[in-house]
């Protein structure tokens, strides 16, 4: 699908929405008072996800106009093209088929004459067999000891998804088997991650789609050197790398060049974007940690939301509605950022994961045909788990001057049900936690009027400081529990929401040329940092000055 994108600003729906945005004055209190059915009317379900849109800015015929915008910008046609394997990533001339990674084994999808479902399941079976060997102790290190630590070496999409899921699914991990993650080229990361590890019981997974990423290859070499240096003197060093290193990549030839046995390499395909790859072989560390059965449940969760996105009617289609709402907030109302606030400590890496997913996807200023965008595009995603965020940055969301739409995510069943036996009796701590989520979303929506503050006997000159304007939009997403399936559903929900936004704006959400320049320059600067005079001469004055500072102060 390389035809010209529709300019969203040229559509009738755009004109209608612009008129609505002009002087838009949300009134959540009034909307709730006027419509006792508001909560029911704006509740949506996608798989196990219960989504409450009643405290968003949906009101009157806004949703209809947004759905018209989707229709007029051909979002659903583009969705169908993506699912069918069309090259919806034109700047790299690639299909975009992360949805094929979670199709059931009995499905089939032919792309360029190849049944990709068969390929996907062949790799999955190899991953599962390998993970079973590690988990059972059948796979050993070179000295015959079972593996106790798996270190994933990767960055971006080859790190953030695995580490996020490893944390999120902590209760499902196998005892006696731990994962660590090295991503940063700051040597501190490798040094600290390797600290205390026993080389005899450590397995490294080098995860890199391209197998050309400087950070990952550097860290992989550091780890290889560490392994060879720290194994016992009598260990067979020739066999060590094959026994302690496996790889995940689309570039299997480069894997062999690194010295990793091709039998221990797991492939995937160029139609899986890095930030969409945690459900491919890139998820190997997750498979090892939680086991094939649970990983398959996670894939099934992804697929549930894929099917929802593919088939649900537009007004009931949660990723479609959420993506359009984000366009409303960002493009029409000028919101620059979007907070994601999980009330689940296990999701503490989820906002970081989403930052790559959303911002690498939609941080674009040209459309997929190379023409300039006609609107603002991707917003800044950020967040921290509640309740920690409440004591840090919520002040700005409640009483600041900026519009910050927020997603709150919470689960009915806690992973660790603990009871606080305090002076007033037993308190279920999870209920205390949920009460905070409910209190925050309520305060953000309805605020506290000056009259309510006065009624508490507050001095007149303090009333305005204690008044909360309310009308801060939130979406609440709840699920029964944070299971592997629900995690897959959540990730797929955000993947498709991101897609919808990009499709409205007419951008290619699947390339990432914006990170290339920095990568190229880093290679050119490296010899200058090391002191090569001709390389230093090639730098700009600011870079030269900082290199000089570095060389003077390094001890
Ligand atoms: O940051 C750019 C990027 O290409 C990401 O899209 C990708 O996830 C990351 O680098 C890592 O790339 P690779 O898996 O090829 O090492």
From TrEMBL:
PROSITE patterns: P_GLUCOSE_ISOMERASE_1, P_GLUCOSE_ISOMERASE_2, P_GLUCOSE_ISOMERASE_3
Superkingdom in the source lineage: Bacteria
One Pfam family named in its UniProt record: PGI
EC number annotated for this UniProt entry: 5.3.1.9
CDD domains in UniProt: SIS_PGI_1, SIS_PGI_2
Residues at the catalytic site: 360 (proton donor), 391, 519
Pathway where this protein functions: Carbohydrate biosynthesis; gluconeogenesis; Carbohydrate degradation; glycolysis; D-glyceraldehyde 3-phosphate and glycerone phosphate from D-glucose: step 2/4
Keyword Acetylation attached: no
A molecular function (GO) term: glucose-6-phosphate isomerase activity
Localization: Cytoplasm
KW Ribosomal protein (keyword) present: no
Record InterPro entries: G6P_Isomerase (IPR001672), G6P_Isomerase_C (IPR023096), Phosphoglucose_isomerase_CS (IPR018189), SIS_dom_sf (IPR046348), SIS_PGI_1 (IPR035476), SIS_PGI_2 (IPR035482)
UniProt KW keywords: Cytoplasm, Gluconeogenesis, Glycolysis, Isomerase
Catalytic activity: alpha-D-glucose 6-phosphate = beta-D-fructose 6-phosphate
Gene3D superfamilies, A to Z: 1.10.1390.10, Glucose-6-phosphate isomerase like protein, domain 1 (3.40.50.10490)
Main location: cytoplasm
Family, similarity comment: Belongs to the GPI family.
Role according to the record: Catalyzes the reversible isomerization of glucose-6-phosphate to fructose-6-phosphate.
Name by which UniProt lists this protein: Glucose-6-phosphate isomerase
Name of the gene this protein is made from: pgi
């Amino acid at each position: 699908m390389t035809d010209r994108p529709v300019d969203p600003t040229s559509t009738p729906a755009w004109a209608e929405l612009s008129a609505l945005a002009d002087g838009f004055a949300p009134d959540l209190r009034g909307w709730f008072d006027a419509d006792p059915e508001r909560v029911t009317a704006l509740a949506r379900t996608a798989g196990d996800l219960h989504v409450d849109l009643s405290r968003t800015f949906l009101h009157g015929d806004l949703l209809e106009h947004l759905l018209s915008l989707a229709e007029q910008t051909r979002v659903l046609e583009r969705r169908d093209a993506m699912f069918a394997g069309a090259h919806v990533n034109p700047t790299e001339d690639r299909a975009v088929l992360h949805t094929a990674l979670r199709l059931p084994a009995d499905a089939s999808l032919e792309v360029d004459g190849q049944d990709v479902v068969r390929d996907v399941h062949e790799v999955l079976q190899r991953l599962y067999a390998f993970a079973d060997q590690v988990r059972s102790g059948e796979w050993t290190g070179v000295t015959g000891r079972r593996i106790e630590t798996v270190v994933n070496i990767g960055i971006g999409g080859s790190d953030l998804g695995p580490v996020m899921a490893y944390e999120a699914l902590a209760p499902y991990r196998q005892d006696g088997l731990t994962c660590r993650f090295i991503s940063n080229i700051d040597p501190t990361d490798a040094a600290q991650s390797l600290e205390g590890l026993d080389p005899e019981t450590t397995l490294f997974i080098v995860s890199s789609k391209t197998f050309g990423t400087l950070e990952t290859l550097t860290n992989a070499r550091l780890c290889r050197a560490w392994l060879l240096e720290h194994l016992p003197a009598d260990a067979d060093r020739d066999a060590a790398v094959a026994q302690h290193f496996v790889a995940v990549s689309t570039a299997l030839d480069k894997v062999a060049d690194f010295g990793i046995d091709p039998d221990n390499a797991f492939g995937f395909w160029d139609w899986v974007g890095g930030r969409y790859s945690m459900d491919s072989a890139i998820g190997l560390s997750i498979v090892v940690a939680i086991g094939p059965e649970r990983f398959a449940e996670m894939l099934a969760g992804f697929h549930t939301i894929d099917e929802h996105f593919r088939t649900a009617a537009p007004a009931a289609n949660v990723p479609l509605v959420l993506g359009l709402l984000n366009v409303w907030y960002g493009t029409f109302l000028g919101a620059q950022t979007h907070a994601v606030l999980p009330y689940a400590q296990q999701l503490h890496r989820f906002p970081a994961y989403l930052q790559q997913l959303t911002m690498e996807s939609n941080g674009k200023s040209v459309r997929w045909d190379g023409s300039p965008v006609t609107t603002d595009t991707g917003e800044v995603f950020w967040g921290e788990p509640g309740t920690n965020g409440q004591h840090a940055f919520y002040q700005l969301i409640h009483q600041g001057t900026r519009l910050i739409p927020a997603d709150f995510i919470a689960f009915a069943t806690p992973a660790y049900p603990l009871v606080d036996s305090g002076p007033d009796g037993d308190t279920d701590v999870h209920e205390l936690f949920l009460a905070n989520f409910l209190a925050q979303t309520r305060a953000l929506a309805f605020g506290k009027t000056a009259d309510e503050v006065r009624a508490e006997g507050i001095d007149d000159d303090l009333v305005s400081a204690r008044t909360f304007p309310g009308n801060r939009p939130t979406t609440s997403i709840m699920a029964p529990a944070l299971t592997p399936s629900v995690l897959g559903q959540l990730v797929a929900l955000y993947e498709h929401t991101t897609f919808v936004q990009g499709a409205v704006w007419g951008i290619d959400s699947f390339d990432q040329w914006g990170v290339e320049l920095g990568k190229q320059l880093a290679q050119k600067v490296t010899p200058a940092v090391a002191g090569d005079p001709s390389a230093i001469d090639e730098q700009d004055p600011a870079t030269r000055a900082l290199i000089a500072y570095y060389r003077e102060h390094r001890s």
